[in-house]
Automatic annotation (TrEMBL):
It catalyses: gibberellin A1 + 2-oxoglutarate + O2 = gibberellin A8 + succinate + CO2. Belongs to the iron/ascorbate-dependent oxidoreductase family. GA2OX subfamily. Catalyzes the 2-beta-hydroxylation of several biologically active gibberellins, leading to the homeostatic regulation of their endogenous level. Catabolism of gibberellins (GAs) plays a central role in plant development. Converts GA9/GA20 to GA51/GA29 and GA4/GA1 to GA34/GA8. Its EC number is 1.14.11.13. It comes from the Eukaryota. Gene3D superfamilies: B-lactam Antibiotic, Isopenicillin N Synthase, Chain. This is gibberellin 2beta-dioxygenase.
Length: 328
């Protein structure tokens, strides 16, 4: 059981808001990747929600559950072993603190760069005697996620009629994986009737797309265009794709990066695994020329992914990180 000191509890009281979590997503756009119409359905979903679910994705379920099992094992290790992964600056093990600017959430996590050297090094730090099981599970999963992300991005590009050179811009390079563990609400919270315990506060992802998979525990919500928050029913056999800030800019606002958040469940742990596909570090983030209509101007100043990231790390989680790049 999780024991909370009064001090720790106070931090979370600030982050919990009484909101209606009963509102479920009316119809989640669900894309069967083998459907010949998938490309246009993806574009429609990205315009309307910045979010969709993919089925028939071709990722073996056994590979997914292998990483989920190893992730659960990792989070059940003694604290000092988890901390051997180092602090998440930017990669490592984090507990309740998110990012460098005071955000907190009811979770612990492991943030990993997708490079084999990094994964190997971190698995050795966690388990010097037996690093390979976790390492294989992570690397196999990353390999499948890369393929899935590229497949989805290619479908998006075709759906948007992106041609020639521009297509390469949707190629991703800095890739990383986030493994999250949201413990259930602690008993101390039950006393605060009608409040939600924030696992991960509202934010948009900075990257091009994020590929989210979770176990069957609820808690994930997205914000609709009208500002209403809706709960997304979990589905451990599918992936959820989230449009990130970079893709919003590349499409000059046609696609919207989706605001999302996670609340802790009353009884069950939530494990999620998110693969982030971002642009190359020194790449300019700008609308793809071939999708711009005649005379259409970019809504954004030109900036590189490096510049965005530098400013993102100065931001709070819920900040609109694109605001400073909007043309005035
Ligand atoms: C949000 C999306 C990803 O989880 C993440 C987060 C990152 C972090 O946890 O270090 C950030 C956040 C995220 C955006 C603003 C900064 C950086 C925490 C934070 C307050 C890994 C990412 O790429 O950006």
């Amino acid at each position: 059981m999780v024991v909370l000191s009064q001090l720790a509890l106070n931090q979370f009281i600030n982050t919990c808001k009484p909101v209606n979590t009963k509102l479920f997503f009316p119809t989640i756009p669900t894309i069967d990747l083998t459907n010949p119409d998938a490309k246009s359905l993806i574009v429609k979903a990205c315009k309307e929600f910045g979010f969709f679910k993919v089925i028939n994705h071709g990722v073996p379920l056994q590979m997914i559950s292998q990483l989920e099992d190893e992730t659960s094992k990792f989070f059940s290790l003694p604290q000092f072993i988890k901390e051997a992964a180092g602090i998440p600056k930017p990669f490592g093990y984090g507990n309740k603190n998110i990012g460098p600017n005071g955000d907190v959430g009811w979770l612990e996590y492991l943030l990993l760069s997708a490079s084999p050297e990094f994964v190997s090094q971190i698995c050795h730090s966690i388990s010097p005697e037996d690093p390979d099981v976790f390492r294989y599970a992570i690397m196999n999963y990353i390999a499948k996620m890369k393929k899935l992300a590229v497949r989805v991005l290619e479908m998006m590009a075709e759906g948007l009629n992106v041609k020639g050179e521009d297509k390469n811009v949707l190629k991703t390079s800095p890739l990383f994986l986030r493994l999250n563990h949201y413990p259930p609400k602690p008993d101390a919270f039950e006393a605060l009737n009608g409040t939600n315990l924030v696992g991960f506060g509202e934010h948009t992802d900075p990257q091009i797309i994020s590929v989210l998979r979770s176990n069957n525990t609820a808690g994930f919500q997205i914000s609709l265009k009208n500002g209403n928050w809706v709960s997304v029913p979990p589905d451990d056999n599918s992936f959820f794709i989230l449009v990130g800030d970079s893709l919003q800019v590349m499409t000059n606002g046609r696609f919207k990066s989706v605001k999302h958040r996670v609340f802790a469940d009353n009884n069950r742990s939530r494990i999620s695994m998110i693969f982030f596909a971002g642009p190359p570090l020194h790449e300019k983030i700008a609308p793809l020329p071939c999708i711009m209509q005649h005379g259409e101007e970019s809504f954004y100043e030109e900036f590189t992914w490096y510049e965005y990231k530098k400013s993102a790390y100065k931001s709070r989680l819920s900040d609109n990180r694109l605001l400073r790049f909007v043309k005035r």
